[in-house]
């Protein structure tokens, strides 16, 4: 059984904070067992930077020292097996390691000794990057380690992350040229014993996207990312595996960990695409870009998106506020008081200055209540007031562009009327979709409705959580939630809250209708 299967990956978070014997805070901890890269783009150096950037502590057991630069690998000095064992003992006997990540393991005896150490000191998850050949084509481990991988290390792994050449080597040298080849390779490698497999497509020829294939033992997931045109891709593989390890150590389950890792690599490449380090063909990238770019800054107060936030989604409308003589801050304050779980500012007429000022004031209110605030359409306003994200329509800025401007941590929602739009939203990196208009509404002109049947069809096609919108009120919200589709997480409303005299009382009424409908659905299922 794999290391994490014994305790269950999803239980990480609860355990991570209580394990330390001493009082105080134990950071998530990744141990990397890998080789040193003197050029510092890959290997141990990449692992430490990647884990640090994602907020995990990284200890290091060095298996080999390489003389390496942007031209290639000039030399390899293997650390004696006994001394690798001693390093492992030093770290594992003293520190509470959550996740072990392996990189360059230069000999079969080191592979076998590592497996013995992991049996003596079990950890919660094992991430195996089966480093054999770098993208530059240099051989980093002798083919004799393949037997050690197949027989001992892979059966203990929670995930193994071969690139195309490594996947081919693990399977006896078969050729891998297409996504279909990658899928069948992932399935075959799974039979060697790892709990899950990620075949990385960074080196797949003739692809517009950087596509990786994840196989969890049952299903395939195709992970797409924009292919960044740059020479600085040295160390992408090490970084991806370390990011997965860091996310697992922080408490994530596997698929979200991989998605976060892929987003990190894509953003790092994008940020570093023009940096020049070294004279050779393949340069390192900047793992610490988040320190330099506010756009990618992970240290902001961003609200971590939880699909349940979509339960009662209040969307403001300046005309209604004017009609009832309320300020926007009073309107959202009342909605939050009544139980709104997320707010969107939809200001189609406001001047930019006024919009930024009121959005900043709303942000303060929302943050103090732990309720996320999104801005409709205006990425610039969302950035200016450090909102939690944006909601865009099909004719607003494309989701992929909004994602690269806002960075990986902001929430992006997109309005979808068709299954194709819903699928695209997922591939482009949105967090949720808004589906509608479900019923006719006066808030939005010329808005064809999809009805409850259309809503259901789109929910079933969507891999993202869905919030229903359009003509929803206390009278029909029960029917909407009563459709019982699992990824329908809530309803978004405008006039049924804000075109009323008492916003907080209306919000409360709607909340109780939604609660009743969801408990009725739960009872039925
Ligand atoms: N140019 C690129 N743009 C975007 N993503 C990329 C690019 N190149 C690689 N990736 C992504 O980086 C990750 C690592 O994949 P890759 O196939 O390059 O691994 P690797 O060959 O083991 O890396 P290396 O040997 O350079 O450390 C994958 O998620 C892949 O899709
Ligand atoms: C030390 C080391 N580990 C892994 C890789 C794979 O990129 C590399 N080039 N060097
Ligand atoms: Mg590569």
Automatic annotation (TrEMBL):
| Cofactors, names only | Mg(2+)
Q: Which reaction does it catalyse?
A: 2-[(2R,5Z)-2-carboxy-4-methylthiazol-5(2H)-ylidene]ethyl phosphate + 4-amino-2-methyl-5-(diphosphooxymethyl)pyrimidine + 2 H(+) = thiamine phosphate + CO2 + diphosphate; 4-amino-5-hydroxymethyl-2-methylpyrimidine + ATP = 4-amino-2-methyl-5-(phosphooxymethyl)pyrimidine + ADP + H(+); 2-(2-carboxy-4-methylthiazol-5-yl)ethyl phosphate + 4-amino-2-methyl-5-(diphosphooxymethyl)pyrimidine + 2 H(+) = thiamine phosphate + CO2 + diphosphate; 4-methyl-5-(2-phosphooxyethyl)-thiazole + 4-amino-2-methyl-5-(diphosphooxymethyl)pyrimidine + H(+) = thiamine phosphate + diphosphate
An individual GO BP term = thiamine biosynthetic process
- Predominant location category: plastid
- Indicate whether Chloroplast appears among the record's keywords: yes
This entry's Gene Ontology molecular function terms read: ATP binding; hydroxymethylpyrimidine kinase activity; metal ion binding; phosphomethylpyrimidine kinase activity; thiamine-phosphate diphosphorylase activity
Q: Where in the cell is it found?
A: Plastid, Chloroplast
CDD domains in UniProt: HMPP_kinase, TMP_TenI
Please state every residue range assigned to the domain named Pyridoxamine kinase/Phosphomethylpyrimidine kinase.
37-281
Pathway, per UniProt? Cofactor biosynthesis; thiamine diphosphate biosynthesis; thiamine phosphate from 4-amino-2-methyl-5-diphosphomethylpyrimidine and 4-methyl-5-(2-phosphoethyl)-thiazole: step 1/1; Cofactor biosynthesis; thiamine diphosphate biosynthesis; 4-amino-2-methyl-5-diphosphomethylpyrimidine from 5-amino-1-(5-phospho-D-ribosyl)imidazole: step 2/3
The protein's name: Thiamine-phosphate pyrophosphorylase
Give the species this sequence originates from: Acorus calamus (Sweet flag)
**What are the top taxonomic ranks of the organism?**
Eukaryota, Viridiplantae, Streptophyta, Embryophyta, Tracheophyta
């Amino acid at each position: 059984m794999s290391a994490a299967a014994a305790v269950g990956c999803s239980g990480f978070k609860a355990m991570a904070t209580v394990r330390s014997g001493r009082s105080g805070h134990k950071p998530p901890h990744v141990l990397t067992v890998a080789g040193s890269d003197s050029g510092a783009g890959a290997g141990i150096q990449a692992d430490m930077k990647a884990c640090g950037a994602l907020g995990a502590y990284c200890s290091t057991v060095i298996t080999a020292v390489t003389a390496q630069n942007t031209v290639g690998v000039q030399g390899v000095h293997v650390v004696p097996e006994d001394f690798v064992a001693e390093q492992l003992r030093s770290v594992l006997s003293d520190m509470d390691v959550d996740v072990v990540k392996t990189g360059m393991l230069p000999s079969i005896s080191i592979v076998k000794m590592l497996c013995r150490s992991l049996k003596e000191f079990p950890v919660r998850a094992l991430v195996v990057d089966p480093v054999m050949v770098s993208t530059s084509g240099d051989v980093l481990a002798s083919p004799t380690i393949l037997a050690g991988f197949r027989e001992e290390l892979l059966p203990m792994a929670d995930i193994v992350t071969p690139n195309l050449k490594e996947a081919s080597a693990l399977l006896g040298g078969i050729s891998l040229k297409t996504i279909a080849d990658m899928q069948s390779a992932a399935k075959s490698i799974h039979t060697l014993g790892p709990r899950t497999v990620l075949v990385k497509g960074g080196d797949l020829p003739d692809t517009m996207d950087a596509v990786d294939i994840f196989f969890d033992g049952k299903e395939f997931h195709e992970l797409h990312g924009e292919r960044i045109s740059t020479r600085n891709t040295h160390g992408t593989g090490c970084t991806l595996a370390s990011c997965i390890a860091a996310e697992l150590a922080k408490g994530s389950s596997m698929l979200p960990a991989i998605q976060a890792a892929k987003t990190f690599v894509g953003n790092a490449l994008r940020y570093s695409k023009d940096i020049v380090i070294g004279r050779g063909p393949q340069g390192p990238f900047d793992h610490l870009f988040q320190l330099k770019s506010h756009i990618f800054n992970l240290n902001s107060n961003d609200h971590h998106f939880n699909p349940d936030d979509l339960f009662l989604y209040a969307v403001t409308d300046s005309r209604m506020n004017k009609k009832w003589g309320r300020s926007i801050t009073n309107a959202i304050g009342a909605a939050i008081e009544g139980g709104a779980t997320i707010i969107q500012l939809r200001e189609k007429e406001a001047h930019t200055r006024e919009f930024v000022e009121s959005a900043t004031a709303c942000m303060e209110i929302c943050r103090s209540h732990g309720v996320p605030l999104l801005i409709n359409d205006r990425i610039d306003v969302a950035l200016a007031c450090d909102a939690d994200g944006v909601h865009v329509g099909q004719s607003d800025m494309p989701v992929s562009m909004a994602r690269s401007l806002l960075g990986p941590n902001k929430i992006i929602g997109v309005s979808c009327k068709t299954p194709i739009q819903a699928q695209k939203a997922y591939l482009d990196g949105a967090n949720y979709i808004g589906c509608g208009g479900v019923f006719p509404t006066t808030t939005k002109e010329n808005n064809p409705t999809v009805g409850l049947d259309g809503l259901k069809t789109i929910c079933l096609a969507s891999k993202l959580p869905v919030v229903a919108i359009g003509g929803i009120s206390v009278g029909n919200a029960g029917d909407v939630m009563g459709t019982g589709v699992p990824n329908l997480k809530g309803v978004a409303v405008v006039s049924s809250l804000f075109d009323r005299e008492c916003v907080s009382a209306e919000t409360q009424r709607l909340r109780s209708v939604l609660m009743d409908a969801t408990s009725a659905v739960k009872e039925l299922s």
